[in-house]
């Protein structure tokens, strides 16, 4: 019957001007279904609803309404008792004034009128209840004292203790009912303003998951509507929490998605590493969108004019970094805080992915000054503005400079006088440096040598170099130049020890693999390719890499670099290698598309100098244990400083000519025999060197 009912609305005629003559169209009638009429009504009311939601009810009105509830409850209960009691009660007016006085004082003490009624929480309900109990206790005590002393009348009947107790609960019920009604009305208005909400599942049934469901259900301004919990524990299936059923995800989730009309799953950040990665992969494959809840709502009991403020949950789309399938290494940064206090810290390559994150993390400590050195002007300016906006009280000094310019770097060290240096400046793209070996040597080797020598000259306490796992048995020019830089600072440190230098600079190297989200990572490249509609290009279907996030990598650099004694090369247990093809598939599915159908994955072949598999860094025979089971020290053969300095100087001298790239590569191979080129034009040099070696021997 309802579907056959139609609503007829009358539309006013429109004025039409044509050639300076006004004509009037005839009235028109439109026929709408009830649903269409409701949508049209809501559309017209939305501006007024926004105004209503924007304004808060004044505190004094809430105060008066609460006292009105108190008065009405007292009057109603008083006259109800009069109808059933044998003896009449006396002094109605005095007692009404007393109860209003006590409830007023109690409300002012607990500030029950200061909260925004539409955002009432459990804390508000507790305050209302405690306030009523206090007022009732005061009223009970005063009236009992009056009856015992017969202050008003010696003929007062026996005191009825149940009256104030029942009154207390009636008042609490009335005030809570008021808040519930107002909250419900505003939820209806906000729901009309927000429109249709997205139906979601919530992963887990622990206290955090239940708290999340309660808060999302209680905050009508959010765009989500929880309809069920998803659990991987069979013993909890079939039950319900907060009115939501618990579903056991032991098989396909598609059935639940169709049954409940849901396409999104909310996951607490703390739950990501608890649930096995295979579950998330199954969700992605079946088309269930994953959203990560980074924090819960926080209710601030402030004293502002608006009363309590609500910070909604921060819910974001899951990122590929969240699906690495590895547990982040937890480090104790409190143990190194004293090394940064009141220190001047210089970071080279500060505007890069790693350098900028190091700056952000160091700015959380109480250091004196941060000197940011980079040759890229715009990123350096952006970083400077970002750090300055934090108002940490740390002096931020951005300097545009190239680490291979010795005169410029000397000026910086002389003026800044740093006590700690983090050397992150480097060229890192393997194929690009394979084409330009001289440039790689000038920046990666000469730049490191200049910064290291100046650190010794100006008494820097600690020098931390950011290296790469590609320096392990290098197969490309980039990895070889980073290994050459490692060799130089290690041999320099051991020379300082041999010469008995007082308080020598501690040189420490940290190695790690690919960093997700960095400018040189495959992740930004894949994102751009997905946004442009594909295809995604990978060099080989079987290629694998180690990955870690930027914050984790930089946290490790800070702690491992600042706990080393000197001369160490720290490597990190980065878990299992990630297959790049699988990574590409996950990213395509996370974007809501299907690999192969919507976006293709194309194999382009290994690039010059590129490895198919990275070297395993944590094998027992190549590393030494440290204070942390996932932080290890690489065992490398020592080099005599005299030999290293002579070789490095000759290498740099040839590289500065920029005319003999093959000679530069030969010098690198002579310095480190483990440098064997792969998939590169320099592979033939290895054969020549081997032939010459056998000919000479």
Structural descriptors:
single chain, 697 residues, alpha/beta, Rossmann fold, 4 domains, nine-stranded mixed beta sheet, seven-stranded mixed beta sheet, 20 helices, 28 strands, elongated, disordered N terminus
What does this structure look like?
This protein has 697 residues and is α/β, with parallel strands linked by helices. It folds into four domains: 2-54, no CATH class; 59-189, no CATH class; 196-318, NAD(P)-binding Rossmann-like Domain (Rossmann fold); 340-513 and 549-572 and 615-671, NAD(P)-binding Rossmann-like Domain (Rossmann fold, 3-Layer(aba) Sandwich). Helix content is 45%, strand content 17%. It is built from 20 helices and 28 strands. The protein has a nine-stranded mixed beta sheet, sandwiched between helices. A seven-stranded mixed beta sheet has the order 7-8-6-5-9-10-13. A two-stranded antiparallel ribbon has the order 1-4. Helix 2 (59-84) packs across helix 5 (162-194) and helix 14 packs across helix 19 (661-671). The model is unreliable at 1-31 and 297-310 (pLDDT under 50).
Topology overview:
Layout: E1 7-11, E2 15-18, E3 21-24, E4 28-32, H1 34-54, H2 59-84, H3 92-110, H4 122-149, H5 162-194, E5 198-203, H6 207-218, E6 224-231, E7 240-241, E8 244-248, H7 254-260, E9 264-268, H8 277-285, E10 289-295, E11 298-300, E12 309-311, E13 314-317, E14 344-348, H9 353-362, E15 369-374, H10 377-388, E16 395-400, H11 406-416, E17 420-423, H12 430-435, H13 437-457, E18 462-466, H14 477-498, E19 506-511, E20 514-516, H15 522-531, E21 536-538, E22 544-545, E23 547-549, H16 550-563, E24 569-572, E25 578-579, H17 580-590, E26 601-603, E27 623-625, E28 631-634, H18 641-655, H19 661-671, H20 683-696
Parallel strand pairs: 5-6, 5-9, 6-8, 9-10, 14-15, 14-17, 15-16, 17-18, 18-19, 19-24, 20-23, 21-26
Antiparallel strand pairs: 1-4, 2-3, 7-8, 10-13, 11-12, 22-25, 24-28, 27-28
Helix pairs in contact: 1-5, 2-3, 2-5, 3-4, 4-5, 9-16, 11-13, 13-14, 13-18, 14-18, 14-19, 18-19
